[in-house]
DNA sequence: CGCCGCTTTGAGTCCATTCAATTCCGGTGG
DNA sequence: CCACCGGAATTGAATGGACTCAAAGCGGCG
């Protein structure tokens, strides 16, 4: 049984290899990875060890990089493209987050040598740097300068998930949407502009609702100065959006 | 303004002091804290430094130990009693978790020198060891043996919250309840027995539903062999419970 | 025994989802 | 350049699950 699972893993790995394209690390890429807070402090030699063991691959869109439940064998770094973290249970799928360059993901599973709790797939053609988990753990054990950044990374991720859990439990879908638009939008004068860089269905899943509900939520936001033009959202009353995001239950306007 | 806030903090602290009772550390307590995975590996001298800066307090039930939004000044260790982690937003409150001896809480906020994202209160009379955040950070910086356990603790907490988020987004209240009963129950022969060590309303809030819904969920679980007797829950078909917990959507029985 | 707080039950309402149909949009090929 | 196609997004109607409000049990403790 174990043997079969192992064989299956190998097959999967080879198939992925075939679908992907292994690239040599370019100096420029190494530099961007090196500049990540996670790696900024470690010694040159340890960083060299990590990069020596790592490899960079190019994946097409919609490639599943990580399968929830697998042993965490690599720390992934997204160098270019876009990655979705998600989870599947009894056929249902929910989006847990999105990753843009340059960031690492699933550090927790790698460090504690456990299985992944989430899956990951590319949403665009992407370049991913894969560092063997063992190399990460080795450097962690050897280089004390690595501990600080690792802890900061973990702690920040933890706090992010706590925020997500809170908003999931205490806010309505409309409020989560407002908060998302506000947090991620860019101010242009007195309007705020937010671009959704993926399908709206993904955003809906991330916010914990259906596409239809998201669509209706956008419609409701018209009362708050929001205009939707495809994947670009404008709001000419950012304060109204912020107020809603902070979950204003007192105001029952209509 | 700042001065007033500071004054307020001091008042709060003093009031807490008055409500609480400062205790001297007993050798026995020190030993239990020392045996925590988080502290097991650090050097004797560093541990001594931590304990020297720390103090143990006894709090009555329903005492708020941590106010969400405050700067994280202490790492708390629950030595005896029961603590609830919760969060408040626009008047609504949600329970995020429960802590029993012996465990630490809010390590993440302490390490990154940020504000607490959650509040904490005692649910029973409790003894809490409070270690100044700065002492924790100092030891972390000085003793490399501390890094591993810290990372393991953080990583596990992170994974726990991810699990909570997933179950919140993908499972029904009924399924979450089944999962909770199953995970926390004790096998006695072919029945499983679970004791709820706090108000059912707290459990409802933790599971993300109202008391009424929780009550109705218990009623529905009767079909799965569940009997409720006050705060003690029995199930004579643990497999049915487990199946439901794994979120069996396919089976539409009746 | 009687009070008080927690829990349960009931009834009605509301909001999100589901299912279904239509519109919108980008890309392709004639 | 335009017609067409398919996937995505929106809209509508109906369902259902969870919540709110209200009232009635239950249980522990003085």
Automatic annotation (TrEMBL), chains A, B:
It holds the Pfam family HTH_Crp_2. GO terms for cellular component: cytosol. PROSITE patterns: CNMP_BINDING_3, HTH_CRP_2. Coiled coil: none annotated. Signal peptide: none annotated. Residues 38-157 form the Cyclic nucleotide-binding domain. The keyword ATP-binding does not apply. Keywords: DNA-binding, Transcription, Transcription regulation. Transmembrane segments: none annotated. GO terms for molecular function: DNA binding; DNA-binding transcription factor activity. InterPro entries: cNMP-bd_dom (IPR000595), cNMP-bd_dom_sf (IPR018490), Env_Response_Regulators (IPR050397), HTH_CRP (IPR012318), RmlC-like_jellyroll (IPR014710), WH-like_DNA-bd_sf (IPR036388), WH_DNA-bd_sf (IPR036390). Residues 171-239 form the HTH crp-type domain. This is Transcriptional regulator. It comes from Phreatobacter cathodiphilus. The lineage of its organism: Bacteria, Pseudomonadati, Pseudomonadota, Alphaproteobacteria, Hyphomicrobiales.
